[in-house]
Amino acid sequence: MNKNIEIETTNHIPQEAFDWYDDYAHGGMDRRTFMNKLGTLAAVGYSMTFLTSALMPNYALAEQVSFNDEDITASYEQFDSPDGYGKGQGYLVKPTTEKANYPVVLVIHENRGLNPYVKDVARRLAKVGFLAFAPDALFPVGGYPGNDDKGRSMQRELDRSKIQNDFVAAAQFLKKHDLSNGKLGAVGFCFGGYMVNYLAAVDSELLSAGVPFYGTPASKELRKNIKAPLMIQLGELDKRVNDSWPEYEEDLKSNNIEYQMHMYKGAKHGFHNDSTGRYDKENAELAWNRTVEFLSTKLA
């Protein structure tokens, strides 16, 4: 099916189906309950095949920059994480243009490991001149399994504090990389959005800029440490994450932290992810252009 036609058609799916998927994807309901709820829509005329294909990712749709694009070079690199799981691994993508150093960006996946969509995001950043590194939280247990449901289950079973420490170690690895200009940015989605907020809060000197897409904030006691400017990207229909924003904004203001928040009208949680029916092309492209401009300015 043509991608544009498919995305347009999913707009007719009731919002509650996307809410159910969000709840399921974040551990709020099990698969049986989720499928039973979808079944109530099938009973009023929606095809279960159509519903599941619209809600579940199709990673063939997500490749905007090929892994063999002549403007980039990609490899897997390992890093030490003594306070995490000991050793981590990520997907490093650099421009093929010869420079002494580059602005560097950590790319942080959702709650299911380093899937093809997030690897493509890293390639998109390298394509426009950043050195990008996308760690895989699932590396200690064999890496992203090629299936989001299994990936979610695997990540849920890991120690959250060790995962966080692995991402701190990944950020330090990238910031000190031989090709780094010493200024580190971070962009993340969902769980990755939370991790961007966490990295900004856990170490005041770590980030020079952060762009969390639909991510919840770090714990309240850590927020006073934030110094990095933030660009907060939120979807209007993402009630679960948006409920945390007013309090977070109060703390950002009270601590004189530079930030900007963009609320994308009609956008769902995950609206940047072009492998699912939640994708909102117009809003995703606007958010991405803002992201690249913001990181380019703050990491120059």
Low-confidence stretches are 1-9
What is the overall shape? Answer: globular
Number of helices: 11
Q: Report strand %.
A: 15-25%
- The CATH H-level homologous superfamily of the largest domain: Alpha/Beta hydrolase fold, catalytic domain
CATH architecture label name of the largest domain: 3-Layer(aba) Sandwich
Which structural class matches the secondary elements? Answer: alpha/beta
Order of helices and strands: HHHHEEEHEHHEHEEHHEH
Strand adjacency order, main sheet:
1-2-4-3-5-6-7-8
Residue-averaged pLDDT: 91
Number of domains: 2
The value of Rg in angstroms is 19 Å
Report on the biggest sheet: 8 strands, mixed
Strand elements, count: 8
Walkthrough of the structure:
With 300 residues, the chain is an alpha/beta fold. It folds into two domains: 3-56, no CATH class; 66-298, 3-Layer(aba) Sandwich (Rossmann fold), CATH 3.40.50. It has helices at 3-10, 15-25, 31-42, 48-55, 116-127, 148-157, 160-175, 191-202, 239-242, 245-254, 281-298; strands at residues 72-81, 86-95, 102-108, 131-135, 180-189, 209-213, 230-235, 259-264. An eight-stranded mixed beta sheet has the order 1-2-4-3-5-6-7-8. Helix 2 runs antiparallel to helix 3 (31-42). It is globular and about 60 Å long.
Spell out the key features of this protein.
300 residues, 2 domains, eight-stranded mixed beta sheet
Compile the SSE list and pairings.
Blueprint: H1 3-10, H2 15-25, H3 31-42, H4 48-55, E1 72-81, E2 86-95, E3 102-108, H5 116-127, E4 131-135, H6 148-157, H7 160-175, E5 180-189, H8 191-202, E6 209-213, E7 230-235, H9 239-242, H10 245-254, E8 259-264, H11 281-298
Parallel strand pairs: 3-4, 3-5, 5-6, 6-7, 7-8
Antiparallel strand pairs: 1-2, 2-4
Helix pairs in contact: 2-3
